[in-house]
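User: Structure please.
Assistant: Input sequence and predicted structure:
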Amino acid sequence: MIGRSGNPTLNDNTFEHTKGYGSTERMTIEGTVNKAFIMLAILLGGAFVTWSMYFNGHNVLPLAIGGGICGFVLALIISFKPTASPYLVPLYAALEGIFLGGISANYESAYQGITLQAALLTMCVFIALLLAYKTRIIKATENFKLGVFAATAGIALIYLLSFILGMFGVTVPYLHDNSLIGIGISLVIVIVAALNLVLDFDFIEKGAEQGAPKHMEWYGAFGLMVTLVWLYLEMLRLLSKIASRD
């Protein structure tokens, strides 16, 4: 059975829903990696657009928010309709890039060099966890999956609560401030986001082993990109909290 992934786009039933399509082409790890690189290139292209507009004096906030909302809606559609992944995932990458470009430019204007630091740290964490997974230093056991899944769900609920309370002018203590406790909370969230990568690696590997349809390469790359974007954003938040204390 496919293992549980903390990533909501990659769950136990994803590959079950794809059975019976009769495709002779099957999902491979190499194919998924190639699709992930294509998504990354598209995302960076979208990010460059809003980044350039921001530093040329344009107000990119509406564009970034629009990209974020449309990207979220598209992610939901992809999650419920994996067969549409080859057509919708590239568009999702472009929208997410537009969103990230605006957010990153805003952070960069406040703390020079922070986006490069966050990107490098995200890349280093990705490579380190990939090596740890391939060498089986870290194993995606059922208890490990359950723990990461529970922690991820808890974080999602906290963010949802923070959003709802924020509409009424109420803030969740420590979540957004730069106190030592606030920095500690961000560090824990970064760790949980990073551990989701291990679950994603395991999920994609098992999907390839079980001969999932070819279009699931796009879906697997999509799930991996969701985790990487989350990890990058949390890196930005953590670094900005640390920088604001100087």
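Confidence is low (pLDDT under 50) at residues 1-5.
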